[in-house]
Amino acid sequence: MAASIPFTGLNSSRVLPIPSQPYPSSHFPSNMLKLAPFRTPSAYSSSVSCSATRDPSSVVPLEQLHNLDNGSVLPNRPDSFGRFGKFGGKYVPETLMHALTELEAAFHSLTADEQFQTELAAILKDYVGRESPLYFAERLTEHYKRPNGEGPHIYLKREDLNHTGAHKINNAVAQALLAKSLGKKRIIAETGAGQHGVATATVCARFGLECIIYMGAQDMERQSLNVFRMRLLGAEVRAVHSGTATLKDATSEAIRDWVTNVETTHYILGSVAGPHPYPMMVRDFHAVIGKETRKQALEKWGGKPDVLIACIGGGSNAMGLFTEFVDDKDVRLIGVEAAGFGLDSGKHAATLTKGEVGVLHGAMSYLLQDDDGQIVEPHSISAGLDYPGVGPEHSFLKDLGRAEYHSITDNEALEAFKRVSRLEGIIPALETSHALAYLEKVCPTLPNGTKVVVNFSGRGDKDVQTAIKYLDV
């Protein structure tokens, strides 16, 4: 029987069920104790630790964040508690606290180490193929010209040209090097669309590491090509049949594995979600996307982009692009979520548009949840966006008003998939197609000559079998 306490501190008066007894660590719930931070510490300290607990008065109010002495738009992100404003933190079982502390220390040590940076840069250049081009999409630009000949200029940041075909390899390579430094030779990961799974399997093959990938059974069906690629690379792919058999459930299974094997195993989490330090760490390993974009924009037109657009599932490709420009107030940041069958259908994955604040997979963020605080099944035609949560820094940027978040339906994404293929000769991933589809809505509103950069986060070979079912070509 569950007791109830007020769900406080989140601009909500809703009362949510709190189990009256702590969960044994061996039976830790799949949503990583969604409500753990609101338990009484004395009663539950043996089952959960939250490093983010602090005096609410120490949180800088959002309205003050634009007036910092150093002129920055935002403070250091995250703070020493692993929080982005009220979002983020470590809502995890005690079993994982040491591993997370060890991981954070190794991350800070290695990112300050010149030898590590040199090795990582060499691998990104020679193995991954960086830097990725900033490509002027001439025919797409022509498509969005108004009758008077004016319109924005569209550029594509070609992460699809990376080894393995997506942005995911940036983070996977860096985390594999980090795991080696920790002496951990067993690697686990979750995957939805399969791109992170392929990237992880690839770097494990490269460095001779054992690799286990958790993937929802439904996603394995619609991404069978990537499942074969992972197995070809030597990874064991474990099907997850629980829940909705998609990304959320694969993540939960990967966390269960990590809890059990934490001493020998490193978890290469694939997005800017999860407990601290993952949102910070994954963001920083993908920040190369934005750094290159700034350099390339300066080379191509002598300035900065005016508008950045990226799709949002967990949000790693978007944070990789946005982070470099967050403090540039004149650069517009646009994230595009999956509206599925429509925002009013209940079948979507538009977490930032329709979600409420809660805790999932170890971090506080916006979630898709019902009135009882239970996770609502998301839907998207793209497996990589089919997730009911989002990275905590995106939640922070949303509440701050620094980034804007919009949504695109399955049908709109499919039309963009076809349109960009035919106009530019580049087949985009269905995830990327959501960002490309938003051009239809934003381009008519932009001044002439506006420089728009879309993060072309992945190629669409993996999605052709899905697209065949819906598109008449």
Report on the biggest sheet. 6 strands, mixed
- The percent of residues in helical segments reads 25-40%
What would you call the shape? globular
Structural class: alpha/beta
Distance between the termini: 55 Å
Count of helix runs? 18
Please give the CATH architecture of the largest domain. Answer: 3-Layer(aba) Sandwich
Number of strands: 18
| Residue runs with pLDDT of under 50 for 5 or more positions | 1-73
Report the C-alpha radius of gyration, rounded.
21 Å
Overall mean pLDDT: 87
Strands in their spatial order, largest beta sheet:
7-8-18-13-14-17
User: What fold name stands as the CATH topology of the largest domain?
Assistant: Rossmann fold
CATH class of the largest domain: Alpha Beta
Strand content: 15-25%
In total, how many domains does the architecture comprise?
3
Pfam family, one: PALP
GO cellular component, one term: chloroplast stroma
Cofactor: pyridoxal 5'-phosphate
Domain Tryptophan synthase beta chain-like PALP: 130-458
